[in-house]
Amino acid sequence: MFSFLVSRYKDYMPLWSDSPGHPRRNLNKRPCTPTTAFVILSVLFNLFFAWQFFWPWPSALDNYQPLNQHPIVDEKVVEPLTFENSNEYAVVTGLYTDAFATAVATLGHTLNAANSTAARILLYLPERVSPRALCVATASGFRPHAVARIPPPHAGVHRHFLDQYSKLRLWTLDTIGVRALVYLDADTLVRRNFDELFSLPYAFAAVPDVFLDSRAFASSFNAGVLFLRPDSAVFEDMLPKIATAAYPAEDAEQSFLNHYFGMQALRLPYAYNANLAIKKRQPEMWRDLMAAEVRIVHYTLVKPFLTGDYAEVELEKLDKNVESKKRARGGAFVEEVEEWGRAWRQTRRLYGDVFDQCRSAT
Questions:
Q1: Does residue 254 contact residue 211 with C-beta atoms inside 8 Å?
Q2: Any idea where the domains of the chain sit in the sequence?
Q3: Mean pLDDT of the chain
Q4: Cα–Cα distance measured from residue 75 to residue 195, given in angstroms and rounded to the nearest whole number
Q5: Would you tell me how many other CB atoms lie within 10 Å of the CB of residue 162?
Q6: How many CA atoms lie within 13 A of 142 on its CB side?
Q7: CA-based Rg of the chain, rounded to a whole angstrom?
């Protein structure tokens, strides 16, 4: 029996033996087979592509770098505007509520300072705008042009945009001789002449929109600054389609225009519609825009001339309101609000006598 046990365990080696006579054997060591290598590489590749999918490389604008310092316009090829009639080229804005009257007056002053040679036309809704507000808005040079309101075709439009479909009346201005126009929202400010836009051969142009959410620097355009060639036939084509086309209702005419002109629209540089959202999204890009190229600033996120929920500010209280707006959005737009405030004070100094007369307008 003893001999059997000896023969059975004669090659036994303790697994945890530390004795010199019994060297420890590494039982976990296995050769790496091609299958194992393939599985490991496959896992690594999948992890890499998953990372690329969920954390993609930022867009060129979110990853903005000041690489190109050349001007966006070659001044040598820009020809001065020649007019066959006083309305041939026009800068147009809109007034659908009294609350924006001081903004329109200030916009007009900055247009004068930029030495734009185009006519000034103010589209307004007679039933929504008081004689006093119309007087204030036209003090700096805009000529009033009454239009009929176009009501929203669907429910769901943002309450601040309920009159915005009336902007489509821009396409009817060919009836008064306008061949090309630049439309500016009342909450814009002109920093530099942009007459070069009137030479564009295209039917429609706008600046891409910018959002603070995942839409980021979008391919859709913002309708706050538009170049277009008025054509009543286009207006007649658009009008029934605002009710039949499929598009998000909340953004009103901007959403519709993106669907109507989305494929054909010429995208303009951000210098023609410097949306305040750019500063929040890419401060370095904003700094470079403001330093040299910006023609038009768009006060989308902060409106120095409004209070509360788009409420009108009395002329006497506007300076104080501007000061309070410096704190809006955590003080992110102090410089821009101050710039609007300076433009307003210049406007008031130049046209204050007219504003005083407007108080008695009926």
A1: no
A2: 86-360
A3: 90
A4: 11
A5: 14
A6: 32
A7: 32
**181 pairs with which residues across the strands?**
90, 228
Cα pseudo-dihedral 11, 15, 18, 19, rounded to 10: -10
Task: Give the CA distances from residue 113 to residues 61, 106, 107, 200, in Å, rounded to whole numbers and listed in that order.
Answer: 31, 11, 10, 23
Token code pair at residue 13: 């080696």
Q: What is the mean pLDDT of residues 155-180?
A: 95
> Could you say which of 3.90.550.10, 3.40.50.2020, 3.90.580.10, 2.60.40.10 is the CATH number of the domain covering 86-360?
3.90.550.10
pTM of the model: 0.84
Angle at 192 between CA 187 and CA 196, to 5 degrees: 105
**Three-state secondary structure call for residue 237:** helix
Range with lowest mean pLDDT among 31-40, 97-106, 211-220, 337-346:
31-40
Number of residues that make up the chain: 362
Edge-to-edge strand ranges of the sheet holding 296-298 = 188-190, 296-298, 274-275
**Letter for the amino acid at 198?**
F
User: 300 with 332: CB under 8 angstroms?
Assistant: no
Q: DSSP secondary-structure letter at 85?
A: S
